[in-house]
Amino acid sequence: MPRPKARASLDLLRDAIREAGLRVTGPRIAVLEHLHGTGTPSSHGELVEALAHLGFDAATLYRNLIDLTRAGLLNRINLGDNVWRFELRAREAHHPEHPHFVCTQCGEVTCLSTVRVKLTPAPGSNKSVVGNISEILIKGQCARCA
Fold this sequence. Notes:
The chain is an alpha+beta fold and 146 residues long. The chain has 5 helices and 6 strands. Strands 1-3-2 form a 3-stranded antiparallel beta sheet. The protein has a 3-stranded mixed beta sheet with strand order 5-4-6, with no helix packed on it. α1 crosses α2 (26-38) and α3 packs across α4. The longest helix is centred in the N-terminal third of the chain and has 16 residues, at 4-19. The chain is globular, with a radius of gyration of 17 Å. Mean pLDDT is 81; it is low at 1-5. It comes from Nannocystis radixulma. This is Transcriptional repressor. Pfam families: FUR. InterPro entries: FUR, WH-like_DNA-bd_sf, WH_DNA-bd_sf.
């Protein structure tokens, strides 16, 4: 008997791909499903490893990551280590853009989706800089490494 929750989720992913103007393909569904399930940004290499059992080659996954990013379904972020990571783009008001935490010891990446950062310019600083920030990265030691 099919799981209704899983089916509804796949239908939502298919609809999102179509609404973005892309064809629904196995690799696109697999990428979105994986990113939805993990809830954290993943690199191309991590996705290749995680989806290897499905038989998708690295080039196919990379092309689909770029297509999904250009279509507005994914964000591509660099967390300071020159490795591009991909995450689902926040579309709902209750899950806006958010900062990320990177452990400086083990490298674990955590989305801080419940954290809100308010930037206020220091007296005498250029106030226009605050409005142009698109990404916030916080580095330190995670609870396991501390």
